[in-house]
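=== RUN LOG ===
request id: a7f3
mode: sequence -> structure
chains: 1
length: 90
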Amino acid sequence: MIERLAKWDDLGIDFNGVFDDLVDRGWLAEDAGRMTLTEAGEDGRVRARERNLRVHEQVHDGIDTADFVTTINVLRRMVANLGGDGNLHA
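=== RESULT ===
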């Protein structure tokens, strides 16, 4: 899993520490190297999803979809112009 997540890590995240924390919280269970969400983990995932949806709605309030798309495309171009990777698809 760490290998799959590493391509998005530009902050030097200690994924082993993150996984250990989730196990300590009772959100993840590990068995023979396989990790699964516990019931508490699923509850946390659902709460996070609901919170993210509320934030998404708040951010987009009053913004036309076409304007949002144009803004994202302009920002991607600016990132690319500065030598970064403006591609949002991994």
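=== NOTES ===
The beta strands are 28-31, 34-37.
The radius of gyration is 18 Å.
=== END ===
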